[in-house]
Write a structure and sequence with these properties.
Pfam families: SpoU_methylase. This protein has about 240 residues and is an alpha/beta fold. It is about 25% helix and about 15% strand. Strand 4, helix 1 and strand 5 form a beta-alpha-beta unit. The chain starts with about 25 loop residues before the first strand and ends with a helix.
């Protein structure tokens, strides 16, 4: 009873080590023929060789993009939501997930229960400084997109001050993906940012986005029962798919 902290145990206790979450400082360059993703570790940044290799699944090219695609979760505070997102990552066949360790819920018992075992099958990479991580990865050829509603994406450029003459080109690049043709995800490796409950992505990460993915409402919502959006666990699964 003491070890289980009064939770039901049926007379059995299994002591296990925490899930490995190796820290990464950047994703290294990759092309569409790649069979693996190489990442740099903050502790080994002085060495020329990559410190971490992530094999891509054999069915990777069944995705719409021939390049690697990794989600990055930031400010997902509810353990149940984080676990559900990890379950979706595994179900969709993605090889790995990036986790902002300073802003997300911990990988505790509640998170792992919601993941239904998927967390054990994923390579979970810890990102302690997401903004710097994104800057380095962008320099290595990765493109960054953010999950945002169509309404929010339409206002993000103006809110971030991208309409000034010195940043006009950046604003043009940061159009919602649902307005882009042809679809840009097949041209480069991609990091998809998914923010947490409430406010979504932080401004520091929005500044790094080169485009946005959103979910269009199927009907006018909000005025009947007050539901004006999807929860982060459901919305994250939809945009990753």
């Amino acid at each position: 009873d003491r070890v289980s902290e009064a939770r039901p145990h049926n007379g059995l206790i299994l002591e296990a080590s925490p899930l490995p979450t190796p820290p990464v400082s950047a994703l290294l360059p990759v092309d569409q023929r790649a069979t693996q993703i190489d990442a740099a570790s903050p502790s080994l940044t002085t060495t020329p060789s990559p410190s971490l290799t992530i094999p891509l699944p054999r069915h990777h090219h069944a995705f719409r993009s021939p390049f690697p695609f990794l989600p990055l979760f930031d400010t997902v505070l509810n353990p149940g939501n984080l676990g559900s997102l990890l379950r979706s990552v595994h179900f969709l066949g993605l090889p790995s997930v990036l986790l902002s360790t300073r802003t997300c819920a911990p990988l505790n018992a509640s998170t792992l229960k919601a993941a239904s075992g998927a967390a054990d099958a994923l390579r979970i990479l810890a990102v302690s400084e997401p903004a710097r991580f994104l800057d380095e990865s962008i320099r290595n050829g990765w493109r960054v997109y953010g999950a945002a509603s169509p309404e929010a994406a339409a206002n993000i450029g103006e809110a971030m001050g991208w309409r000034s003459s010195s940043t006009r080109e950046k604003h043009r690049r940061a159009k919602p993906l649902f307005e882009m043709s042809p679809h840009p995800l097949g041209k480069s490796p991609v990091i998809l940012l998914i923010g947490g409950e409430g406010k979504g992505l932080r401004p520091a990460l929005l500044k790094r986005c080169q485009g946005f993915l959103g979910i269009t409402k199927g009907r006018k919502v909000g005025g009947d029962v007050g539901v004006d959006s999807l929860g982060v666990a459901v919305a994250g699964a939809v945009v990753m798919e």
